[in-house]
Automatic annotation (TrEMBL), chain A:
Domain 4Fe-4S ferredoxin-type residue range list: 303-334
Role, per record: Is involved in L-lactate degradation and allows cells to grow with lactate as the sole carbon source. Has probably a role as an electron transporter during oxidation of L-lactate.
Classification via PROSITE patterns: 4FE4S_FER_1, 4FE4S_FER_2
GO terms, molecular function: 4 iron, 4 sulfur cluster binding; metal ion binding
Record keyword DNA-binding present: no
Domain of life per record: Bacteria
Organism this protein belongs to: Parageobacillus thermoglucosidasius
Keywords: 4Fe-4S, Electron transport, Iron, Iron-sulfur, Metal-binding, Repeat, Transport
Protein family according to the UniProt entry: Belongs to the LutB/YkgF family.
Name used for this protein in its record: Lactate utilization protein B
Binding residue positions for [4Fe-4S] cluster 2: C323, C366, C369
GO terms under biological process: lactate metabolic process
Top-level taxonomy: Bacteria, Bacillati, Bacillota, Bacilli, Bacillales
SUPFAM superfamilies: alpha-helical ferredoxin (SSF46548), NagB/RpiA/CoA transferase-like (SSF100950)
Binding site for [4Fe-4S] cluster 1: C313, C316, C319, C373
Amino acid sequence: MPMKIGNANFHERVETNLHNTFMRGAVAGAQERLHTRRLEAAKELGNWEEWRALGEEIRQHTLENLDYYLMQLSENVAKRGGHVFFAQTAEEANNYIRDVVIRKKAKKIVKSKSMVTEEINLNAVLEAAGCEVIETDLGEYILQIDDHDPPSHIVAPALHKNKEQIRDVFREKLGYKQTEKPEELALHARKTLRREYLTADIGITGCNFAIAESGSITLVTNEGNADLVTALPKTQITVMGMERIVPTFEEMEVLVSLLTRSAVGQKLTSYITVLTGPRDEGDVDGPEEFHLVIVDNGRSNILGTEFQPVLQCIRCAACVNVCPVYRHIGGHSYGSIYSGPIGAVLSPLLGGYDDYKELPYASSLCAACTEACPVKIPLHELLLKHRQVIVEREGKAPISEKLAMKAFGLGAASSFFYKFGSKVAPSALAPFTNDDRISKGPGPLKAWTEIREFPAPNKERFRDWFREHQKGGGK
Amino acid sequence: MQTGTIHNRDKFLQTIADRLGRKQRTERVPRPHWCHQPQWTVFQGYSQDELLEALKAQCPRIHTQCVETTSAELKETLKEVVANHGGGPVVTWDDPRFDEYGLTHLLRDEWPKENTDVHIWDASAGRKNIDFADKANVGITFSDITLAESGTVVLFSGNGKGRTVSFLPKTYIAIVAKSTIVPRMTQAAAYIHEQIEKGHLVPSCINFITGPSNSADIEMNLVVGVHGPMKATYIVVVDR
């Protein structure tokens, strides 16, 4: 699946998803649960703000010295017998991986969850090369067998599906005969996937954190799928976004602690695995051959700009889990594999404003995302910066905003129009008003009031109130 | 060890340096002194007894049974725990600690005589190790370092210490010497970092394992036991 999902425009996507009641309930419930668990995990530590400050400091230092740490990483991987490929573009990364696959005459590939391989659309390339590609993370596996349904959350990709839907997909695609109980569904996936691990030719993983000092990669899962993907096939290919690196084990440890707490409220997930090169001589499990593909794909364009802090991201989705906009419109509305506030900042940078100019506006700028971020990315400020760039440099503000601003400009510029407008507004909007709220507004208010209410204009205008107040008769 | 290859590095790193508006950094970058270091304050000054209590308190939260025993009782405890999990087949690391802890007799004689299949990891047997582990009911390893805060056992891979012993069987049992318990991941990471600074090679695989495999991908319901073990038990040897 490429980074961009589908061809519908932003408003069509939002429209569709607003009417998906199960999805909206599931998202609200999941947000609630993950948010509470994160707060509890942070509270247990007591000094969460210090942890965040440390996380930010580590990420900033690493980005400032990124070329050095990538140099050190690649040297150390090669010293341990691994191969490193630096890919400027998605195409370069895909071509290299395809060449390895062809050279190994691979037919079956197992994968553990990786956002960057989604971003570069690797699976399509592998399938075109004649390979069977199997996603092994349970959520990703469900989406894959359901005719490549797109992910809707960075950490819980199948969040938008209920267990009955999953049961039906299993019945149709896997000949599953049991009930919708999650335990039974998971057990079936366990049995099916176990055979795949044991017979796969190549294992492909993402990378949570590479460690420069030792040439290692760190994988964080609860299921243990990344461990089987890397322990059983003879060849391992790991694909990493170029910024996903730390200097030493000591910084890896801090960031893993921030990641697992922020993502799922766990002190550590069940499996944190640090792999260095291929297996050692005399080892029985682990790959004979190891390739590390380091991907730029637009990231270097962010370096040195006002948007650089977005590269601090450790993909925990804490911002997604507190976002009131995501809560209403769900992950699919973003039209990108990166959803929520981080997606609204990152997608336009990696995928361009043409496809993603609406995303920075899909935000109430409430700053809950910034407050939740464990590495202190100023997400809501970056969203504002995007809006600035869109209007000033690109001249691409969404049409509705242009019209609204124009109308407001016209109305506010002339004192007659302003007085007239604010005077007639209450009665003009009266048919849409209910208990001082507007829930189905006309014209420019329509898009807003489809997902939330708008306060009705006050019957007493500020100007009138102020005049009365000065006379000493105001409320 | 044969050195691997590196492709396209120079242009890639030059682009980064250009973007950051400076020359490429090739000289060692000194590690900064981080202004905040809250990770060291967790369980600071705890005794081994207090760390063990913290570990025990964490175990129910990670769906893991924690059993205390002494080196004299270890063999009987292990037999009992394995029996409670439904018996063999059993797969273990080839690790001198099994001998040091007086378990060789159990693995090589007692269990086989009771018709409990035991496979001790044997590098020369190649793939057969994995086939056995796949069918095993129980996998047993020692914990190299144990983290009290998260309830984590840390395993360093090596020739006799197959990675899949802790992943493929239905049940995973870790034998934990009380002396290996440290406050949290910080101490383990510092130890590994120190080894690297001294020029030692890190093991090709280091596992931080915290309870059994699990997933919440279906409607956020926690399911314990997905790809890896469905159950986990830590046996803490209190006099080691």
